[in-house]
Amino acid sequence: FLQGERLLEMSSIATQREGIRGKAYVRDKVCQEFKALGKENFRTLTIIANSRKFSNATFEEISHLVGEIVSLAETCCAEGADPSCYDAGSSALSAKSCGEDSPFPAHAGTAGCCAQEGLEQKLCLAALQHPPQELPRYLQPSNEELCQAFKKDPKDFADRFLHEYTSSYGQAPLPVLLGSTRTFLSMVSTCCISPAPTACFLKEKLERKTLSLLTLMSNRVCSRFTEYGKDKVTFSYLTSLAQKMPSASFEDLFPLAEDAAEVFSECCDSVAEDCMQKKLSEHTAKVCSALTAQDKRFADCCKGTNLMQNYFCISALPPAPAPKLPEAQKPMNKQLCSEDGARHAKRYLFELARRHTSVPDTFLGKLYDACEKVRGECCSAKDTSTCLDSKRQQMGEELPRFLEKANQLCGQYTELNFLDFKKRLRESLTQMMPEAGPELLGQLVEQRADFASTCCSHNSPPLYCASKVSSMLGEACNGGSCLLS
């Protein structure tokens, strides 16, 4: 499998180089992989690659596409096949993609690609992909349902699982996904024929717990890395640590945040077999070494010998209560536009984050974006000081309302259990909107509760929650122009 993944990566690189190296190069690379892997492994990897790429496609659409790709490789990589076979076959595949009744995954960009011709059309179609699923849809069935589906048709069961799982967690590094899917299918095939399936599933699930958690966690962090970029991920990780341990200094936490961002930078797109697990373990050792003596909760998480489990424990820590600290010192104009301007801005936002520990990442991200926008506009302006003074005044007016709104939406969610939170939410909305009827109140409570359960944790889906926050903050702007919207 993992050897296959390296070959699959080579295949994508080969496709990108088609215009430079020629059609024979692409055919040779595909055939090299097909022969090295064998038809079934090649097919498995093709399901995984295309389910990740077209995360919103149906199983039937992926099946059609995979069937065509495998058939093309099988026909054109056979001994004595015509050298023009692969090029002719891939052209036919492109033509089928452009047909009115194409059975392949739908994409808004298909029509634009189909307006092109020849190699340009093929490369354009090959580059199309869906945005990743921000809220994974895969729900693992019960043991009984798994075995029922497996026994009915093992091959169809495996194909459907690969499609559903990899389209839901497609941002996880490929080696992690491959390991996770392989061990899951092995567990099902072993336990569904076991004389004691319940005990078997319990044992196997415990054995694959670390890999399963690694898949979920790396899908989240790599989604965030793709959306945020390295600098904003550094900030996001910094504020997460600051809220878990508000007593720690910027100097203690910033190097750890930079180290985490470097891990994600190296491993999210890596095809090295154990990159994420190895590098995260090394990172966790650094976190434990730096912070254990300062905080009992971190010390408890760092007691175990399994560094990955320690990492999961630290990631799951809720924010600590906010300490009583003097008002955060704002950076001076000359600091914001200096060579270390970005660091000065991060230090100020770090100070805000540890004073408001219930304000989640999705709100803090808005503060980061606003600071970057202001620095971008004002540091290149003719009159930098006037520009910064004006923005500083605007920010001073908006920030208290912004933090109040964030605390209002997420503060109680972190303090109360979900039922008590909804009850308190209904009470506060009734006070704010005494004229609202029971039906409208019920809708508002469900909307706010849905937002809180999805977006008030540090691991919230970035794009989805950013749009929700923008919508809520936009209402607070009363149609005006807000820095923090």
Task: Please characterize this protein's 3D structure.
Its main location: secreted. Associates with membrane-bound immunoglobulin on the surface of B-lymphocytes and with IgG Fc receptor on the membranes of T-lymphocytes. Interacts with LRP2; the interaction is required for renal uptake of GC in complex with 25-hydroxyvitamin D3. It is found in: Secreted. The protein is an all-alpha fold and 485 residues long. It contains 25 helices and no strands. Helix 6 packs across helix 8. The radius of gyration is 26 Å and the shape is globular.
Offer a quick outline of the entry.
The protein has about 475 residues and is an all-alpha fold. The chain is about 75% helix and about 0% strand. It has helices spanning about 1-15, 20, 25-35, 40-55, 60-75, 85-95, 110-115, 120-125, 145-150, 155-170, 175-190, 195-205, 210-230, 230-245, 250-265, 275-290, 295-300, 305-315, 335, 340-355, 360-380, 385-415, 420-430, 440-455, 460-475.
Low-confidence stretches: 1-22
The biggest beta sheet reads: none
End-to-end separation: 46 Å
Number of strands: 0
Q: What is the element string, with H for helices and E for strands?
A: HHHHHHHHHHHHHHHHHHHHHHHHH
Q: Tell me the strand percentage band.
A: under 5%
Helix content: over 70%
Q: Choose one word for the global shape.
A: globular
DSSP summary: helix tally: 25
InterPro entries: ALB/AFP/VDB (IPR000264), Serum_albumin-like (IPR020858), Serum_albumin_N (IPR014760), VitD-bd (IPR000213), VitD-bind_III (IPR015247)
Keywords: Actin-binding, Disulfide bond, Repeat, Secreted, Signal, Transport, Vitamin D
Subcellular location: Secreted
Subunit structure: Associates with membrane-bound immunoglobulin on the surface of B-lymphocytes and with IgG Fc receptor on the membranes of T-lymphocytes. Interacts with LRP2; the interaction is required for renal uptake of GC in complex with 25-hydroxyvitamin D3.
